[in-house]
Write a structure and sequence with these properties.
By secondary structure, this protein is an alpha+beta fold. 22% of the residues lie in helices and 33% in strands. A hairpin with a 7-residue loop joins strand 6 and strand 7.
Length: 234
């Protein structure tokens, strides 16, 4: 289902990490929960606020993902995102100081929602899916249509055949900054059968995007907190 602008809300992503290696990364989510999320939710009129921690790479030989914490905020359609978004943490809090943390915030408008048959039928575990695979893509110049064809005509259908897959929501960058494509795939677990994964990423349409892509940024995230209208989907 493609989404009209008239009905669209917006999504804010806040990737966070510690930049001071002497600090304990395991305390970052609690620090963020106290210092950033409440103010961010209020300032941007978010109806839903979700917190995720990064999962280890599926391929153990890959380097750990740059970011360790992800905040997802769903805003009302009346929220203005025409000005730059900033996050300011004025106070110190325990062992972590504001200068020890980097936060990257981006704004997105939704363009497509896709749900598995299990999700539509309600034959899924109760509550929100526990894993979100967040993928940001910037295709090669002139290859934008290939991205749309891949998602719309093949990739999401193949994903829906995974027994733990629930739904996907696709977005475009609100201000046109790169990478401009975002997909959030929600699943009950992060397991993907290696053969099924090879099939999904080995098709002609997949290669038409991935072989020339400028940016492909992907990681799996584990949900640990949700606030606001928790019955609302991303």
């Amino acid at each position: 289902m493609y989404i009209s602008d008239a009905k669209a809300t917006s999504l804010l992503l806040a990737f966070t990490r510690l930049t001071n290696p002497a600090k304990d990364a395991s305390t970052l989510p609690a620090w963020y929960d106290r210092n950033v999320r409440p103010t961010f939710t209020t300032t941007h009129n978010a109806s839903l606020a979700l917190g995720y921690t990064v999962l280890p790479p599926v391929n153990a030989s890959n380097a750990p993902y740059k970011w360790t914490y992800l905040g997802i905020y769903k805003t009302s359609k009346n929220t203005s995102l025409s000005t730059p978004i900033s996050v300011t943490v004025a106070q110190s809090d325990g062992d972590i100081q504001p200068e020890d943390v980097e936060i990257e915030v981006s704004a997105w408008r939704p363009v497509q929602v896709f749900e598995s048959l299990r999700e539509k039928q309600g034959t899924v575990p109760e509550g929100r899916p526990k894993v979100a695979c967040v993928v940001r893509i910037e295709p090669a110049a002139g290859n934008e249509a290939a991205v749309e064809d891949w998602y719309h005509y093949q990739h999401l259908d193949l994903l829906s055949m995974l027994p733990n897959y629930r739904r996907s929501t696709r977005y475009r960058s609100f201000d046109g900054s790169k990478p401009r494509w975002l997909a959030i795939h929600e699943m009950d677990t992060d397991y993907v059968d290696p053969y099924q994964g090879a099939v999904m990423m080995g098709t002609e349409l997949a290669h038409s995007v991935m072989d020339t892509v400028q940016v492909f940024d992907a990681a799996n995230w584990a949900l640990y907190v949700e606030e606001g209208d928790v019955g609302e989907k991303i």
